[in-house]
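task queued by scheduler; priority normal; single chain, no ligands, no partner chains; default sampling; output format set to structure tokens
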Amino acid sequence: MLSSRVLADSSSSKTVYAGIALLHTAELLIDPPARYPDLFPVLNVLLCAPVFGLAWLWSTARIVQVAWAVGVLGGSRREAPTKKEREVAVVESVQES
């Protein structure tokens, strides 16, 4: 599973934001070559699709982790003790001490 620490690395985020800003600035200031009229949209897709893919993988991994922890995916699900069971446990621990 992907580590949230890897995805939350600020240098990676800053690099992506800088790339996006540079791409948009270039799109505003530079005309694409006649041979490649869709140059900037293609570069945008090449930059943003992997970022989206990593975010999607991370969020899917987190959903699975939370579902496993809650017991939805067959993890050991322990029923919460009833009020009476808690009271008995407190009485037993007091009697032991």
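post-processing summary
- DSSP finds four helices and no strands in the chain.
- The two ends are 45 Å apart (CA to CA).
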